[in-house]
Backbone:
């Protein structure tokens, strides 16, 4: 994300989605994955040679430039952020909280033994339960900060730590991304309005393992255009999970998502990706959600996230001054769904399902 320093370089303040390309190793700071235009605050990827054959269309421009976007909806504006919420001392915290240094991408995939798989199932199950509960709170008039408070309390009541809290300086326990917010929305004093859509991104750290999931919810009476975007985004995730199995090429995930999104002329956000997850928050592999030629295959007992972000219009991300909130360049709606999955002998198990 973008720092407040004089150079205005993008810093590695990334949550359950982050920018990356497969050639980069964990020793390289995440801010080197980005380029930043101080005049426009656009975020873009630093491409490896392996991506050099892709056209600018993949990383710049609008899939739906010819569509008339909803102009009645007001653009998001930053609200007031409440003070840091405490976590009891007896709850184990991930290492990055104590070090206060934003971690990079851990080298090597998260592959687990039997005990590790059970721990991943437990953290995934809790994350799913928290997300389901958070979704019941979505209604006109509720503040996103109130959702954060409820999520924070439920997580610590279950003896877990809210993984986003303190990750690279993120100030809250959950991400709440409303309407044109692609990801990393900070819960604040803004009240949800009738017709909004909101992605709630939950990650919990339980018994030394992270479980990571998100879903987009309807607030009140959402128009058909918004409902269709949300439906297709969920379908993209489901279709991507369905092709996962031992030996399957990771690049098939992006191909599957892109093909389905293209049928509806939706944009697929390129800069934020899925990732290995388990004992660390972000690990290999980097999971791209668009067509690509990156190498890598899935292996038994491996865990990672798939989390496509689709847009009605431009898929170019623009960052707010808070160095976290990422919105669509043209203000068009964005939706996202995410699961943590385990590669099994005969396919994939969704760990973040109640």
Residues:
């Amino acid at each position: 994300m973008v720092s407040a320093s004089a150079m205005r370089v993008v810093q590695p303040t990334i949550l359950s989605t982050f920018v990356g390309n497969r050639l980069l190793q964990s020793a390289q700071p995440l801010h080197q994955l980005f380029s930043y235009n101080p005049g426009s605050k656009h975020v873009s990827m630093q491409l490896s040679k392996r991506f050099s054959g892709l056209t600018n269309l993949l990383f710049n421009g609008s899939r739906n430039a010819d569509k008339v976007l909803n102009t009645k909806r007001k653009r998001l504006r930053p609200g007031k952020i409440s003070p840091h919420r405490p976590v009891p001392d007896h709850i184990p915290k991930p290492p990055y909280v104590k070090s206060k240094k934003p971690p990079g991408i851990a080298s090597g995939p998260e592959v687990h033994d039997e005990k590790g798989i059970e721990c991943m199932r437990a953290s995934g199950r809790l994350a799913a339960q928290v997300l389901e509960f958070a979704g019941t709170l979505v209604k006109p008039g509720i503040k996103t900060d109130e959702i954060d408070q409820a999520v924070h309390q439920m997580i610590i009541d279950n003896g877990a730590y809210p993984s986003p809290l303190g990750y690279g300086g993120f100030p809250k326990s959950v991400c709440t991304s409303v309407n044109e917010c692609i990801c990393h929305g900070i819960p604040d004093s803004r009240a949800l309005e009738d017709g909004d859509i909101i992605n709630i991104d939950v990650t919990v750290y339980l018994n030394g393992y992270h479980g990571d999931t998100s879903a987009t919810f309807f607030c009140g009476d959402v128009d058909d255009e918004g409902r269709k975007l949300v439906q297709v985004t969920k379908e993209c995730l489901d279709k991507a999970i369905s092709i996962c199995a031992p030996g399957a090429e990771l690049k098939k995930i992006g191909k599957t998502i892109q093909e389905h999104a293209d049928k509806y002329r939706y944009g697929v956000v390129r800069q934020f990706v899925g990732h290995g997850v388990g004992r660390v928050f972000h690990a290999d592999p980097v999971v791209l959600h668009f067509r690509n030629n990156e190498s890598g295959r899935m292996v038994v007992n491996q865990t990672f996230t798939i989390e496509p972000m689709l847009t009605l219009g431009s898929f170019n991300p623009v960052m707010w001054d808070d160095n976290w909130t990422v919105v669509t360049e043209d203000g068009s709606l964005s939706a996202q769904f995410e699961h943590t999955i385990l590669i099994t002998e005969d396919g994939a198990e969704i760990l973040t399902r109640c």
